[in-house]
Design brief:
Layout lengths: L2 H10 L4 H24 L9 E3 H7 L7 H11 L19 E3 L4 H10 L3 H4 L4 H4 L2 H14 L25 H4 L1
Antiparallel strand pairs: 1-2
């Protein structure tokens, strides 16, 4: 069974609640440690961004028995990579060559989108993105997640331009 298949099976199977929670918590802990290494070494973090999967996992402190969790990490960061489409998750084995070309602004946004405060609050972000840039990305994220409706409410101004409330104008006719 491939590492990716194992990752998908174990991360989606909640039939044994305790095992599932332990697995996910292990993933979160290893994920945070990996991001702390990658972000903490920025801009000289190339050693953590490319190499054989098993070597890269070791550099990022994923234990040998956690290669499926490492592939889960790659799955999570994939949408924040410039070259994400080049990585075939199902083909990843110990000798698979990985090169992570990270779009840091997109990564920060995606961490916000995942509501992963343990990741977007890593202190190393301060040396990668300015406070203003992080605030701008946060505002962009919030604006993108505000519910918008084109529905006209009863007490809204009537779209016909009469100046009356919709309920007293066109809403009465319909």
């Amino acid at each position: 069974m491939s590492y990716y298949k194992t990752w998908m099976d174990r991360s989606e199977d909640a039939s044994n609640r305790q095992e599932y929670v332990e697995y996910i918590n292990r993933y979160y802990a290893l994920e945070k440690a990996a991001y702390e290494k990658i972000l903490g070494a920025y801009p000289d973090n190339e050693e953590y961004l490319s190499g054989k999967a098993s070597e890269l996992a070791k550099k990022l402190d994923f234990p040998k028995d956690a290669m499926d969790v490492f592939v889960g990490f790659i799955d999570g960061i994939k949408s924040s990579l410039v070259n994400g489409d080049d990585i075939d998750l199902e083909a990843i084995d110990d000798d698979y060559e990985i090169k992570l070309v990270i779009d840091y602004e997109k990564l920060y946004y995606n961490m916000r989108d995942a509501k992963a405060d343990w990741l977007y609050n890593i202190t190393a972000w301060k040396s990668i993105l300015t406070d203003e840039k992080r605030q701008e990305i946060t505002k962009e994220y919030r604006d993108a997640n505000i519910a918008h409706s084109d529905k006209i409410g009863r007490n809204d101004p009537c779209p016909c331009g009469s100046g009356k409330k919709y309920k007293n104008c066109c809403g009465k006719k319909g």
